[in-house]
Inverse folding.
């Protein structure tokens, strides 16, 4: 009888997770924005984690690539992207649960944390909240192309 009760409760919990999107960990939404000057060649980005490969994306000026995810239970979530533009290329961690960058709005656990990256010819900028423009002066530099 105890096994039957456990099975029913577990099934209801699983159904609620699927139906209402309940997760035990924090949700995030990642935004990668092409901030290169007008008439520039597309920015190529290839983003992935250990388990998910988003493939190659070719972003025109002011276009963005975005995805949603949940941090894993043990705090080891890592997403990284390799960026290519002309003769420049660089691989960067865009989300690392071990050293949470100041790029994600994570003030409220119950709200989806939003993470913004602006990639320009100068480097890689972040903004904790949706910035007013794609102008780097409104953002904080995190990486340079080197």
């Amino acid at each position: 009888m105890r096994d039957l009760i456990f099975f029913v409760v577990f099934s209801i919990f699983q159904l609620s997770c699927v139906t209402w999107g309940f997760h035990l960990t924090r949700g995030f939404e990642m935004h990668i924005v092409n901030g290169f000057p007008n008439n520039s060649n597309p920015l190529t980005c290839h983003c992935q984690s250990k388990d998910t490969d988003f493939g190659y994306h070719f972003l025109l000026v002011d276009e963005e690539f975005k995805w949603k995810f949940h941090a894993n239970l043990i705090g080891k979530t890592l997403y990284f992207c390799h960026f290519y533009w002309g003769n420049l290329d660089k691989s960067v961690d865009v989300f690392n649960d071990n050293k949470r960058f100041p790029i994600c709005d994570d003030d409220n656990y119950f709200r989806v944390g939003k993470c913004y990256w602006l990639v320009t010819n100068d480097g890689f900028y972040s903004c904790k909240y949706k910035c007013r423009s794609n102008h780097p002066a409104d953002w904080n530099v995190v990486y340079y192309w080197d």
